[in-house]
Design a protein that fits this description.
- The structure holds two protein chains of two kinds.
- By secondary structure, chain A is mainly alpha-helical.
- In chain B, strands 7, 12, 13, 14, 15, 18, 19 and 20 form an eight-stranded antiparallel β-sheet that branches.
- In chain B, helix 1 links the parallel strand 1 and strand 2.
- Classes of the chains: A mainly alpha, B alpha+beta.
- At the A-B interface, helix 4, strand 2, helix 5 and helix 6 of A face helix 2, helix 5, helix 10 and helix 11 of B.
- Chain B: Belongs to the GMC oxidoreductase family.
Chain lengths: ~120, ~625
C-alpha cells in the first residue's frame, strides 16, 4: 500500500487488515474511509517536496496519516489514542521497519541483546 | 476472637515480603496486609499484566495493572509541565498533590508486590564513602557504615539473585569486595550499545566543568537482580540455583531479553516480591485489599496492632507484638502521620529524596538495535565518588538500551513526528522510521539528592482519598548542589556525544512533557524521577534528629519498625533496592531477636519457648 511502504502481502500477513478496516471506518466514518481507499489506491504522479500528495485536502490527508500511524504502531492516534489490541501492538510496522520486535513480543534469548542487530527483515 | 500475630507487616513489596519470609522461616505467625489487589491465580496474573501492558497507550510504570479506585497511586502521567509566567512550572493531578517549586517526579504502585513488581532490577551496592556525605558538606550521615552492612549486602545479593562481576566491581566501581567474593550469577552480557560505546570511549577523558576533574571514561557492567548463568564459585563453592516462577528453583531460568522489565518481566527472570512470597512458610498469611489507616499503640507508646479498611470502608483491628511498616517511602510517612507517631524529632515525612535523572538522547552513526534486553546493562562509574562531591552532586551514568522511551515516550511519537511533521508516507517513511529507531540511544544521569528537611511529605489539609483518608502532599525542590550536578552531567554528555559522533536530539520540550524543568545559570534542564523515593523516616543515632534507629525501629515506639528506602539517610548514586533489601534483612534478624527475647520467660506468654537462631543467609557470616 502506498501509505505504509509495505506491500499488500506484508500487510495481510499481520492478520490485521480486517480489524484495521473496522477501526478506520468507525473513526473516520464510511464516506471518508471510502474516499481514502480510492485516492490512496490510485497511482499518482504529483507529489510536493515533502512527498505529500499535494492535491489532497486536509481531511483526506489527516485520514491518511491516522491510518498510516495505525499500521506503524497498532494504535489509533486519537485523540484520545488507543491500542487496538495486544496483537496490533506486537505487529506495529515501526518495529519491522527497524528490524526489531516490539518489547515482550518475541524475546530472542539470553544474551541476544549483545549481538549486532539484524538488518530490516525483508517484506 | 481476634487472632493474635507475632508480627503484622504493612505492605507486600520487596521489604515487607522479605521480612515475612524470614520471620516465617522461624515459625513466627506473620500477617501481611497489602492495600493493593492480589491476582487470585498468579499465572493468570502474569498473563493479565502482560496484556494490560500491551494494551496501555502510555507504557508507564503502572501500566501492567488496572487501577483500583479505592487505592489510587501516583503515576508519572499525573504531572504536566506548564509554561505559565513567571517561568517553568507544573501541574499535578491524582493521588499525590504537590506544592513545591519543582515536582517530585516519580510514582509508585499499590498492588500485591508493590513497586517491586515494576522496578528496573539494577542492584548495585552503595560505595563506602556514600555512608557519610556530611564530610562532603551535604546530606546526612548514616548511623552505620559500609562494613556494618556488608554481610547483609551479601545476603541480599543471594536473596534477590544478583548477576555481577566481582572483579570488575572491585576494579572499576570502587567496591572493596574481598578477593574470594563471587556473585550468585555471572555478569549479564553487555548490550550491543554498551560494546559500541566501550570501543569508542574506554580510556578517553572528559572534563567535568564544575569539579574541574578530568575523568577517564569506562563502560562498566551493572549488577542485576536478574537471572543469568549461575556462578559455581558462589557461597564458598556451593553454587547458586536461579529462582523463577513463584520463587521456585529453576536452574535454567535466564533473562531472555523481553525488554519490558519496567513494568513486567514475563519470564520470571527479574526478582520481584512475588518470588519471596512463593517461599513463605505456612505461618505467613497475606490479606490483600486491606488498607491500613493507622497504627495502634498501648498507653506506653508500644505498638499493639493496626486498623485497616476494606475497599468498602469497613474497619478491622488486628493485634501483634511487632508492627512493621513497609508500605513505600511516601505511604510509610503518611501512615506515621495519620497515626501521630514518631513525632519527637519533627522529622517524619521530611528529607524526601529521589534520584532526579537528567536524560540526554541522540542517534549514533551506526545501527544500535535498541529495545533489546534489560533497560540498562552498563554505565559509567567515574562520577560517583571523590572530592568533586563537594562542588556538585555526584552521579552515575546509565547507558539506556531502550531508545528514547524514557525521554520521549514509545516509538509512536517518532512515527507521529515523521508522518505529521515531516509529511512522510510510503517507502520514504519506512526508511525514515527504520533509521530513526534503530540508531537511538540515551544516557541517564542519576543524581544524588541530599537529605533536606524542606523536601517533605505531609497530610493534605483537605483532599481525601476514596476511603476518606487524607492524601499525602509533597513539597519538593532541587538544591543548587543537584542543579550544579546536572550542569556538569550535561557538559559530560556533550563531550561523550562529540566523541561518538552522535547526533544530539536532547531538547527538554515541549513544556507539557517536562514537568521537571528549570533554568540554571542561563540554560534549561529537564529531569525525570527514577522512582527511588527515600528518606521520610530517616535513620539516625539520636531520637532528637531521626525517626528510626539503625535497626529501623521507631525511637519512641517499641515494637514499631518502619522499613524501606524511607530509612535511608542518603540515596547515594546507586539504585537503592539492594541497599533497602540489605537493611531489611538486618532488621528481620533484629525482630527475630526481639521475639526470642519476649519468649524467653516461657510461662509469661501463650507461646512455646523457642531457641533463638540466626537464619542462614548464603554468603553472610553465621
Amino acid at each position: 500500500m502506498e501509505l505504509t511502504g509495505f506491500n499488500s502481502e506484508a500487510l495481510w500477513s499481520t492478520g490485521l487488515v480486517e480489524r484495521y478496516r473496522t477501526v478506520a471506518i468507525e473513526q473516520l466514518g464510511p464516506a471518508r474511509f471510502e474516499r481514502l481507499l480510492q485516492e490512496a489506491g490510485q497511482p499518482r504522479g504529483r507529489r510536493n517536496v515533502q512527498g505529500d500528495w499535494d492535491d489532497w485536502d486536509d481531511g483526506l490527508l489527516d485520514a491518511a496519516r491516522a491510518v498510516t500511524q495505525l499500521w506503524y504502531t497498532g494504535s489509533w492516534p486519537g485523540p484520545p489514542p488507543f491500542v487496538v489490541s495486544p496483537h496490533a501492538y506486537a505487529r506495529g510496522l515501526a518495529w519491522t521497519a527497524a528490524g526489531l520486535a516490539a518489547p515482550a513480543t518475541a524475546p530472542a534469548g539470553y544474551g541476544s541483546w549483545g549481538h549486532a542487530p539484524a538488518g530490516e527483515s525483508a517484506s | 476472637m481476634t487472632p493474635r500475630y507475632d508480627v503484622i507487616v504493612v505492605g507486600a513489596g520487596i521489604a515487607g515480603s522479605l521480612i515475612a519470609r524470614h520471620l516465617g522461616d522461624q515459625g513466627r505467625r506473620v500477617l501481611v496486609l497489602e492495600a493493593g489487589a492480589r491476582a487470585a491465580d498468579p499465572d493468570q496474573g502474569n498473563r493479565d499484566a502482560l496484556a494490560t501492558y500491551f494494551s496501555a497507550s502510555a507504557k508507564v510504570p503502572g501500566s501492567a495493572y488496572r487501577p483500583q479506585p479505592a487505592v489510587p497511586w501516583p503515576e508519572v502521567t499525573d504531572l504536566t509541565g506548564t509554561d505559565a509566567a513567571p517561568g517553568p512550572g507544573f501541574r499535578t493531578a491524582g493521588h499525590l498533590p504537590q506544592n513545591g517549586p519543582l515536582p517530585y517526579a516519580s510514582g509508585y504502585v499499590r498492588v500485591n508486590g508493590g513497586t517491586g513488581n515494576v522496578w528496573t532490577g539494577l542492584a548495585p551496592r552503595m560505595l563506602p564513602e556514600d555512608f557519610d556525605t556530611e564530610s562532603f558538606g551535604y546530606g546526612r550521615r548514616w548511623p552505620l557504615d559500609y562494613a556494618d552492612l556488608e554481610p547483609y549486602y551479601r545476603a541480599a545479593e543471594g536473596e534477590l539473585g544478583v548477576s555481577g562481576d566481582a572483579a570488575e566491581q572491585r576494579a572499576h566501581a570502587g567496591l572493596p569486595l574481598p578477593d574470594d567474593y563471587a556473585f550468585p550469577m555471572q555478569a549479564l552480557p553487555a548490550s550491543h550499545l554498551d560494546r559500541l560505546l566501550a570501543a569508542q570511549l574506554d580510556g578517553r577523558h572528559v572534563k567535568d566543568p564544575v569539579s574541574l576533574d578530568s575523568v577517564a571514561l569506562r563502560v562498566v557492567g551493572t549488577p542485576h537482580a536478574r537471572n543469568g548463568v549461575p556462578n559455581p564459585e558462589y557461597d564458598g563453592g556451593r553454587g547458586y540455583v536461579p529462582r523463577g516462577e513463584h520463587g521456585r528453583e529453576d536452574p535454567g531460568n535466564r533473562c531472555v531479553g523481553n525488554a519490558s522489565c519496567i513494568p513486567h518481566c514475563p519470564s520470571y527472570a527479574k526478582y520481584t516480591p512475588l518470588k519471596a512470597q512463593g517461599q513463605w512458610g505456612p505461618s505467613v498469611a497475606l490479606r490483600d485489599r486491606a488498607v491500613v489507616s493507622r497504627v495502634l499503640t498501648d498507653g506506653t507508646g508500644r505498638a499493639a496492632g493496626v486498623e485497616y479498611l476494606s475497599y468498602d470502608g469497613v474497619a478491622t483491628r488486628v493485634h501483634a507484638d511487632v508492627v512493621v511498616l513497609a508500605a513505600h517511602t511516601v505511604e510509610n510517612a503518611r501512615l506515621l502521620l495519620l497515626s501521630g507517631l514518631g513525632t519527637r524529632s519533627g522529622q517524619v515525612g521530611r528529607n524526601l529524596m529521589d534520584h532526579p535523572v537528567l536524560l540526554t538522547w541522540g542517534l549514533l552513526p551506526q545501527r544500535v538495535g535498541p529495545y533489546r534486553g534489560p533497560g540498562s546493562t552498563s554505565g559509567f562509574e567515574g562520577f560517583r565518588a571523590g572530592a568533586g562531591r563537594r562542588l556538585r552532586a555526584p552521579f552515575r551514568i546509565e547507558i539506556g538500551n531502550w531508545g528514547w522511551v524514557w525521554a520521549k515516550g514509545p516509538v509512536d511519537g517518532d512515527v507521529a513526528e515523521l508522518v505529521r511533521e515531516r509529511g512522510l508516507f510510503g517507502a520514504q517513511l519506512r526508511r525514515a522510521v527504520g533509521d530513526r529507531i534503530s540508531r537511538q540511544f540515551a544516557l541517564q544521569f542519576e543524581m544524588e539528592q541530599g537529605a533536606d528537611p524542606a523536601n517533605r511529605v505531609t497530610l493534605h489539609p483537605h483532599e481525601r482519598d476514596p476511603l476518606g483518608l487524607p492524601r499525602p502532599l509533597v513539597t519538593y525542590d532541587l538544591s543548587e548542589h543537584v542543579k550544579d550536578g546536572m550542569a556538569a552531567a550535561k557538559a559530560v554528555s556533550d563531550q561523550i556525544f562529540t566523541l561518538l559522533g552522535a547526533e544530539d536530539h536532547t531538547d527538554y520540550a515541549p513544556a507539557a512533557a517536562w514537568p521537571g524543568r528549570f533554568e540554571h545559570r542561563g540554560r534549561t534542564y529537564g529531569y525525570r524521577g527514577a522512582g527511588h523515593a527515600a528518606g521520610t523516616h530517616i535513620m539516625g543515632d539520636s531520637p532528637a534528629g531521626s525517626v528510626v534507629d539503625s535497626w529501623q525501629r521507631c525511637w519512641d515506639h517499641p515494637g514499631l519498625y518502619a522499613v524501606g528506602c524511607g530509612s535511608m539517610p542518603s540515596v547515594a548514586t546507586s539504585n537503592p533496592t539492594l541497599t533497602m533489601a540489605a537493611l531489611t534483612l538486618r532488621s528481620a534478624q533484629r525482630i527475630e531477636a526481639d521475639l526470642a527475647e519476649r519468649d524467653r520467660p516461657a510461662t509469661l506468654t501463650s507461646h512455646a519457648p523457642r531457641t533463638p537462631s540466626t537464619p542462614h543467609t548464603p554468603g553472610a557470616p553465621a
